Automatic annotation (TrEMBL):
Residues 1-216 form the PTHB1 N-terminal domain. This is PTHB1 protein. One of its GO terms (biological process) is cilium assembly. One of its GO terms (cellular component) is membrane. Residues 224-251 form a coiled coil. It comes from the Eukaryota.
């Protein structure tokens, strides 16, 4: 009729109390950290899991007559005067830490010890023998065994960190159900007339009582008196429903929602002026002051939005002060506003001055939704006005069908108003140090862009065409057009491709050298450890010197690989800028439509990031080869060529450059870009307009080389051609 309490302390001491009186205390042998502890009334023993990953059982009688905790010191006097040594009753090595122990006895003659490990579930007999075990393919959090309706079996509830509660009968999974949170404790209880209630408690105090199954339905629908069918009303209702279906299926969009019907609207407003105090953080740009611009993002919700999250993305080398925002649940007709700044972080010019906002949330029904919007950044974020340069290694001429516009009108943020309409030359100084000059002809309808670097022409050319289009759009001029009649700068473009590819080859070499030196370093380490562990010391024979030298080589190679990686990032940014420029020049040269420009962008800009496993060169080569074999093919013989389905890094860029040259030549002869696979052979008609064609030379002999890959993705569809065995 008394209560006995056992308390386990952090230092491995078991303190036993009889009611409020302290009885005795014992230290567990080999103790490091406390584990789960349970008491077996059938064997009168305490069962725990030690830091040695062993299940240990101690008899109460052995604990009572063992050495007292206050007399732990191992002196001869205390050994003679103290009680017996603490001996374990039985031990079982389970090979992992235990989360919980539970001892049940649903049968009078048999009791079981359940141990929940990190990856396994054990059921032991009361003498330490394994009755059964179950390997778990998830991370458990808690468990509870309970009585089974089947004779000789025991059911158990095991919860895991995936918020799932599993019901086992011995080792057989009988049921699994989803929980709203991760439970840290689970029990089975009876409440009044409701039996078998599952009670769970989460780590944040969320208590839930639930049960499996559904309420029985006692309702029976009464019989309806039969009545005559009115076919006219049914036909009218059918026509109305068909009309609604036709209206709903007019568009092919997955979610046909107009702008007014969107549940959540995301808008981004870019400040017209740069920040007075720059918000640039950890910028690597060598310029004196790195400017930043403020972007204000507003989220307007028409419905309740649960778990809202906003992500703001800009392409490197640009960066934002904060790219992730988490909000509380939004109420209907509520709005949230965030403010952030964008700046140039890496020391290279960005290929794009655009950003994206993505707002994800859940509807009250649990359906996830995403709303997004894009924003454009000002050109003055990456450059500032400078004196025009008279010379440049690279020059482009853009023709228009309208008289030239004064730069004071279209570039008011870069031209001093005091210059008036006489400003026909404009200089742009990039933060990275390069300069680009824009010239307007006084006699003809042309604009010239010149710079020492090819990639620096892109942003200024794009900004010029965009501002001209916006200006004439405001003037209600619908026939404005820009053209390009010069030659595509392929040789300069190929030099950037070779620079990027050379850095990729260097990255492979550094990776191989690092692997070799790491193997050598580990081998020397093993030799040294063997020498140090030897009972009879032997001379090191300069192994320590060799180890230090190898370590320095590994560090030097790692630094060189890191520097090469940074150079490759800058080279890829330059390559993307030049690729954007080439795409724009080809579209102006051939007067391509919007769909054809999208095909060009999907062909030459398939990757947002460049990696060693999947690089720009092999991907673009595969896409260009596919176009040359389909819509730009000259004969059925080329269409019959098959392409390999493996993408691998090429040995050099010669084939890629040949295919790009042939691609431009086919366009010059009247080829038309299309994703249709049933196009006939294109006529070889030379386009008028003074376009200089590129000689094919010997490129026609072997356009598609077996072993290349065709993976062409554009406008949401992918086409793959596999080679025949």
């Amino acid at each position: 009729g008394r209560d006995l309490i056992c308390i386990q302390s952090m230092d491995g001491m078991l303190m036993l109390f009889e009611q409020e009186s302290y009885a005795f205390g014992r230290f567990l042998p080999g103790f490091l950290l406390p584990g789960p502890l349970a008491y077996s009334s059938r064997t009168d023993s305490f069962i725990t899991v030690s830091s040695c990953q062993q299940v240990e059982s101690y008899k109460y009688q052995v604990l009572a007559f063992a050495t007292d905790a206050d007399e732990r010191h191992d002196t001869e006097q205390q050994k003679l005067s103290s009680g017996k040594r603490l001996v374990v009753d039985w031990v079982l090595n389970i090979g992992e830490q235990a989360l919980d122990i539970c001892i049940v006895s649903f049968n009078q003659g048999v009791s079981s010890v359940f141990v929940l490990g990190e990856r396994n579930f054990f059921c032991l007999k009361d003498n330490g023998q394994i009755r059964f075990m179950k390997k778990l393919d998830y991370s458990p959090s808690c468990f509870i065994p309970y009585c089974s309706v089947r004779e000789g079996t025991i059911n158990a509830l095991i919860a895991n960190h995936n918020k799932i509660l599993n019901v086992y009968q011995d080792i057989t999974l009988k049921w699994a159900t989803q929980l709203p949170c991760i439970p840290v404790s689970v029990k089975v209880a009876n409440f009044q007339d409701l039996k078998g209630v599952i009670v769970t408690l989460s780590d944040d105090g969320h208590l839930q009582c639930s049960y499996l199954g559904t309420d029985p339905s006692l309702f029976q629908a009464p019989k309806v008196d039969s009545r005559e069918i009115n076919y006219e009303e049914m036909n009218a209702e059918m026509k109305e429903l068909q009309k609604i279906i036709r209206e709903a299926t007019k568009t092919q969009d997955i979610l046909p929602e107009s702008e007014k019907q969107r549940d959540v609207t995301v808008t981004a407003e870019v400040s017209p002026d740069l920040d007075e105090e720059s918000q640039a953080i950890d910028s690597e740009v060598k310029a004196g002051a790195v400017p930043s611009v403020t972007v204000k993002i507003t989220i307007q919700s028409r419905v309740a939005a649960q778990k809202p999250c906003l992500a703001v993305c800009v392409q490197a080398p640009l960066a934002v002060t904060c790219d992730q925002f988490v909000f509380d649940d939004l109420e209907p007709d509520k709005s949230e506003t965030v403010v952030l700044s964008v700046f140039l972080k890496e020391n290279c010019s960005p290929p794009e001055l655009e950003g994206t906002c993505m707002f994800s949330y859940n509807k009250p029904t649990g359906i996830p939704r995403v709303s997004q919007c894009s924003f454009s950044l000002p050109l003055k974020l990456v450059c500032f006005p400078a004196q025009p340069s008279k010379a440049g290694n690279h020059k482009l001429t853009i023709d228009t069908n309208k008289p030239p516009i004064s730069f004071v009108t279209i570039f008011p943020d870069f031209v001093d108003p005091s210059e008036g309409d006489q400003a026909n030359a404009l200089g742009f100084q990039f933060l990275t140090g390069s300069k680009t000059t824009l010239l307007a002809s006084k006699t003809s309808q042309r604009y010239r862009i010149q710079s020492d670097q090819l990639e620096d022409l892109w942003l200024v050319t794009k900004e010029l065409i965009h501002r001209l289009q916006e200006y004439f759009k405001k003037q209600n001029c619908k026939d404005f057009a820009c053209t390009f009649s010069g030659s595509i700068p392929l040789q300069e473009y190929f030099e950037l491709i070779d620079q990027h590819f050379e850095l990729r080859l260097n990255a492979e070499k550094y990776q191989e050298l690092l692997s070799e030196r790491a193997v050598q370093f580990r081998a020397i380490e093993r030799r040294l450890l063997t020498r140090f562990k030897d009972k009879t010391p032997a001379p090191l024979q300069h192994l320590d010197t060799l180890l230090e030298g190898t370590f320095r080589e590994v560090i030097a190679l790692a630094d060189a690989a890191e520097e090469n990686q940074a150079n490759m990032f800058q080279a890829f940014a330059k390559l993307k800028s030049a690729t954007h420029l080439v795409i724009m020049l080809i579209s102006l040269w051939q007067k391509l439509s919007t769909d054809q420009i999208a095909i060009l962008e999907a062909t030459f800009l398939p990757l947002a990031e460049d990696t060693q496993e999947l690089g720009w060169e092999e991907t673009v080569d595969a896409a260009v080869s596919y176009l040359l074999r389909t819509c730009l093919s000259k004969s059925s013989k080329e269409q019959a060529l098959t392409l390999n389905s493996q993408l691998s890094m090429p040995k050099d860029t010669s084939r890629l450059k040949k295919n790009i040259t042939l691609f431009c030549d086919r366009l010059a002869k009247g080829g038309r870009l299309s994703l249709s696979t049933d196009l006939a052979t294109q006529p070889a008609a030379v386009m008028l307009g003074g376009c200089a064609t590129i000689p094919e030379s010997d490129l026609e002999e072997r356009t598609i080389i077996p072993g290349s890959t065709a993976v062409f993705a554009s406008l949401g569809q992918t086409t793959m051609q596999k080679s025949k065995p």
